[in-house]
Write a structure and sequence with these properties.
Blueprint lengths: L1 E4 L10 E4 L9 E11 L1 H7 L17 E8 L11 E4 L13 E5 L3 E3 L6 H6 L1 H14 L7 E4 L7 H10 L3 E6 L4 H6 L4 E4 L5 H5 L2 E6 L5 H6 L2 E9 L5 H10 L2 E4 L6 H12 L7 E6 L3 H8 L6 E5 L1
Amino acid sequence: MRAITQNTVGGPEVLTLADLPAPQPNPGEVLIRTRAAGVNPVDAAVRGGYYPLLGEPPFVLGWDVSGTVEAIGAGVTDLAPGDEVFGMPRFPAGAAAYAELVAAPASEVARKPASLDHLDAGALPLAGLTAWQGLVTFGRIKAGDRVLVQAAAGGVGHLAVQIAKARGAYVIATASPGKIDFVRSLGADEVIDYTRDDFVQKAGTVDLVFEALGGEHPEKSLKTLKTGGTLVVLLGTSDKVAAEAAERGIRIERISVRPDRAGLEELAKLIDAGKLKVHVAKSFPLAEAAAAHDFLAGKPIGKVVLTA
């Protein structure tokens, strides 16, 4: 099978197309014929050696996958060859999704939403589950909550805005000037231009912050939260932030996305109900993975996808 591999860490140029042995499904696994594979910031971090999840090269990147079940391993009873599935298997262990065939635990993939094509389904799992788990599983979002979503035009952020709205929240979002109209189109109630305005002053008091930027943003985000509020962070916080949060009764949830079939099924329900749409900024053939990583570095609106 064709796959994208790398023999060293570095820039996008280290990604090369190769012929590799096809995986075989172990007991409890399915073999997926890949139609689309999402490209995520974590992929670029692993490629560059900044986040060594996969150890030393060579390895095959990628976790998002959408495709058709080609074969099943022993013990798999709820999926069959020909079924269309999507998922984010094995994370943070390697899933090797930048390939024409992917072996995945059957329990970590779900049936593809009927109303979604493979391109969009391949873009959804990692970003969608990050938003779902952050807002719903750990954030415990409730109808009527005032929710601040940082970086709302990004791969995770644009899904978080829609999920929060679907859960009945009042959504305040931050974005750069060229992305404000897009974020408004997602249903955000207020959009703050973070290059011009101080989001702390503009947002007022909120119940929940979904924070994906890191740096100074967790500390600033605390200033928007009411006593008893929740700060969901993707990139960690400092001891200072943790101490201040404890003093004010603010709960901090540092999340790292995990495979979650139930979460995928909830995302699929939102998709089929018309309450969640995936925005794909651009797709690239599998062989052009390096170009896809170059494009991702420009922080496009929404997601980037490889097609196999």
